[in-house]
Write a structure and sequence with these properties.
The chain contains 1 helix and 5 strands, in the order βββαββ. By secondary structure, the protein is mostly beta strands. The protein has one domain. Strands 1, 2, 3, 4 and 5 form a 5-stranded antiparallel sheet that branches. Strand 4 and strand 5 form a beta hairpin. 8% of the residues are buried. The N terminus is likely disordered.
């Protein structure tokens, strides 16, 4: 039986002649910890850039940043 491996990181197909950029996923999370909707994909050169971009996407809500199946960070909401 042939098993398929799941890629660790999504890669965005680049224009011809350039390297692919990693695509990270940002999820909005409800106050009880459930994902509120589909992920927003962000293209970043590295994890540091992805964390910075995700931090700007909070808009007062909790968000989680993922790299494929790997959880990176959760930014808590401003809601009390």
């Amino acid at each position: 039986m042939h098993s398929q491996s799941i890629p660790h990181r999504s890669m965005v197909r680049p224009p011809a002649g350039s390297a692919p950029m990693p695509a990270y996923r940002v999820y909005t999370v409800t106050t009880d910890g459930h994902i509120a909707g589909p992920a927003q994909m962000i293209e970043c050169a590295d994890e540091q850039e992805a964390v910075a971009k995700a931090a700007h996407l909070t808009n007062g809500k909790s968000v989680e940043l993922w790299d494929g199946a790997r959880f990176i960070v959760r930014f808590p909401s401003d809601e009390k």
